[in-house]
Request: fold
Amino acid sequence: MTLLSDAPNLVRDRDGLEAFWMPFTANRQFKSAPRLFVKAEGMYYTTDDGRRVLDGFAGLWCCNAGHCRKPITEAIQKQAAVMDYAPAFQMGHPLAFELANRVVDLAPGKLDHVFFCNSGSEAVDTALKIALGYHRIRGEGARMRLIGRERGYHGVGFGGISVGGIVANRKMFGTMLTGVDHLPHTLDIEKNAFTRGQPEWGAHLADELERLVALHDASTIAAVIVEPIAGSTGVILPPRGYLQRLREITRKHGILLIFDEVITAFGRVGDAFAADVYGVEPDMITFAKGVTSGTVPMGGVLVSSEIYKAFMGGPAGIELFHGYTYSAHPLACAAGIATLDLYEAEGLFERAAKMAPKLENALHSLKGTKHVIDIRNDGLVGAVELAPREKAVGARGFEAFLGCYEKGVLVRQTGDTIAIAPALIVEESQIDQIVSTLREVVDSLA
Ligand SMILES: Cc1ncc(COP(=O)(O)O)c(C=O)c1O
Reply:
């Protein structure tokens, strides 16, 4: 068995790197110059060669409480020793119900039931299936169309890539789901460059939904799914009034509105859900990541009482033929409960709201830095967009990511956009470090 402490030896032997086909990674580049973390604590990772790296990205938008927080790790360890696993099909365990209640307590308005799964991708596919099933149960089974948005990221299941709008994630995989259409994305740098928070321009882009309704007819459309903040594509914020317009139009036509809050839920924008922050209540919310602060994989879908009741009014027996072996896994539930306790005890959502102006000012101080063509932010999410190099889109962004890593700061790169999303425990001095490192690195790039 290879222990963690042996990992550096394994890695020095380059053959040892071959077996793992790394996700969303330039495998050949990585394996020629590996970047390995072996330890994490609070705001920091430690690399295999003993360097401390400030985590400017909460792992991958997920470790909102910071790394290896004792109350969470202890809850997981304790649970693993008491009950490792319990089936969630026709059986239950108390932690699943407790966590569902806790999530519902945080959720907006009528979103009062939770379906658990293990990832954001599964949450999205679950929500899309619930939308289709809901209409069918109500006798509107012709509502089969799903509408996503250009540049949207909804994970990697076939449902998620179908409604998603990131070309590279779609083009290899054939026709995907049929009957899907897309709204336009809302990024317009010419109109909104360097906006702090939600842009003023762009609410009218929601009216494109009326065009799709006119094209397909409302009676064929099941649901619209959008991220309140489109994260993975490079942080695109909702223009003021945009989400409200989507809500009005979907409601008018009996179309379900799903917010994919896999990155925005659990404090990222300064409240439990972005739906609260932006004042719009969808019919479903998908979540993952922050629910366990990234410690144990978990995802879920919050659904409205109306949707749940529709299923419960159907034929007797199993109401939804859908679920995962690891839905509501005891370790994930223990981690989730401990995480929500910690968020509450330390007031981390409020802390995120309090630190947001600090991040905003620090990021916007990069305006005028070489290559920087836009800066966007809200809550504890921000992005700095660099001008692409001619015939090498993404190259400058990747070099910026590598440069920051070499200087001890982890950021995330999508194309030529550098995204920042630190844990909600981030200190002001750490925000300064992230931004000054980014400035130095970007300034040095060709
Ligand atoms: C909005 C959104 N939806 C879905 C996903 C997919 O989540 P996972 O990687 O856990 O499947 C992500 C991941 O970043 C996401 O940002």
